[in-house]
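Hi support team,

I'm opening this ticket because the web form for multi-chain structure prediction keeps timing out on my end. I have pasted the exact lines I submitted so you can reproduce it. The total is 629 residues across two entries, so I didn't expect it to be a heavy job. Is there a limit I'm missing, or should I split the entries? Thanks in advance, R.K.
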Amino acid sequence: MIDIDKWQEIFSSIRRHKLRTALTAFGVAWGIFMLVALLGMGRGLEKGLEYDFRDDAINSLWIRSGTTSLAYKGLKKGRRIQFDNSDYDLIKEQFPEIDAITGRFYISGSQTVSYKDKDMSFSTRGVHPGHQILENSIMLEGRYILDKDLDAVSKVAVIGRIVRDDLFGKEDAIGKEISIGGTIYKVVGVFRDTGSDDEMRNIFIPITTAQRIYSGKPEIHQLMVSGGTLGLREMQVLESKIHNTLARNKRIDPKDEKALRIFNLAEEYQKFTGLMGAIRWLIWLVGIFSILAGVIGISNIMLIIVKDRTKEIGIRKAIGATPGSIVRMIMQESIFITSLAGYIGLLLGIGLLFALSDVESDYFRNPGVDLRVVVTALFVLVLTGTLAGLIPAIQAARINPVEAIKSD
Amino acid sequence: MIQLKGIHKSYQTEYNSLHVLKGIDIDIQEGDFVSIMGSSGSGKSTMLNILGILDKYDEGEYILDGNLIKNLSQKDEAYYRNHLLGFVFQSFNLLAFKTAKENVALPLYYQKVDRKVRQELALEYLDQVGLLEWADHYPNQMSGGQQQRVAIARSLISKPKVILADEPTGALDSKTSEDVMDIFKKVNAQGITVLLVTHEDEISKMTNRVIRLRDGIIESS
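Hello R.K., no limit was hit. The queue was backed up. Here is the completed structure from your submission:
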């Protein structure tokens, strides 16, 4: 019963002060819109950067060899360094703390891969079993390369999902024989990868098999080590220890930066999370200030409202309005306006993010926003705006009716 | 109905204190029709504000319908204003954005009276002041006399014991002034105490009792 009257009061007041109401509403809606947009964009940026790391085990070292740039122990500079099985064995033996290790053997050029009458081109790599962990590969069927494959130098292959789809279509791939560059391999597993589609265009074979068929030497083109749960500090220690070990084994000057390069993904990831943290912090700072601006706007306009309505409030008090009823009247109106406007801002912000949700560029993809955060922000905005309006409302309630009625 | 005993009131300004009421003693019986007269600065408006519980006094006692009106909370003040008193102002003071009917019904809103009952009573009281056809008009569509009659209807709807009117005819011509005074007489005939402030002799002559104020004291009553 009483509610109808309250709403009537609110709407009649809004009708009387269209411009003022519109300005308040715009301020609030804009504040929330900005916050939603900012948080969403930040999320998109974060996702975009995170995406670059998705493919691989984050806590890993990528070790590549090059050409010596310093003479060392009677060896001339300009010597080409090539890893081999002894380096792999050495690291595996000396560093029990590592979670996984793999070598990679790149077969030069892309090989023609055939099944029945289909000929296609995919790249093939020789790997150790640890490669699965380093690449975050997930088995869809069958198994990965195992130690026994390496021992037996078996001609088995693990293929990516796209390779399977392209070669076999709907046919079952496991146990089938394919030809890679003229050599027959048995397919033992199909994997998918969290990284890009290109990762699923790969074929992996036992590294020993690759070495025997394509090189004749036990060479390894790249080594990758995963630190598992090791911390950043431990990863840095591991990096330098491995560096020294390999340098000694290959007789390289430990200061030679060209002969041996270790890329510490953990360090990069740390930099990235540090950067993201800073960006997130900045976004929140901007968001809080935009909310603050909204709050100041609301309280400003609330002051004007009360000033505007001094006489009306005086009359209401003279005919029996309690101070509480005056405060409630003003608060309800402002809560209604701010909530509605905030909600509209929220919808617009979400609409914008929705429109951008398909964007997938290098550093920006799928912006989204934590709705709970935004609703909290909206609540905070309305609450603080209302609290800010409470002071003028209480002042309004203290208005002396005599003076108010005389005023114009 | 109304008893004032030794009422003093001073206003503090920045540099000095202005002693407006210097010991007022009045006793007004229920059903009386009283006018308060005095030149400007005599303290008559201040006295009316104190009677209307719109202003506080410094010394003395004010008893309204058996209730001591002193050091009340704002809520209690609002309660007495709402239930015992009806106000009529010189400048009508209707809410411009409400119709005559809504204006008249407003005091009952603060008594939490049911909406439908409010509407019906408002029409009834508008009828009493002869403005039933104007129920849905806004104040700016009415003449001064009509607006004042709406204001009187508004002051009556809460069935007050006392009507306080501050120069109710001050903004009206003599013909409409008479109409308004006729309404006050009718109201008084129903047993409601009417107290009005005026500086016009013709108006005060229509009341049963005249209280004259001069420099904050009662000259005659």
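A quick check on our side: Residues 30-56+73-220 of chain B form a domain with the Rossmann fold fold (CATH 3.40.50.300). Let us know if the file doesn't open in your viewer.
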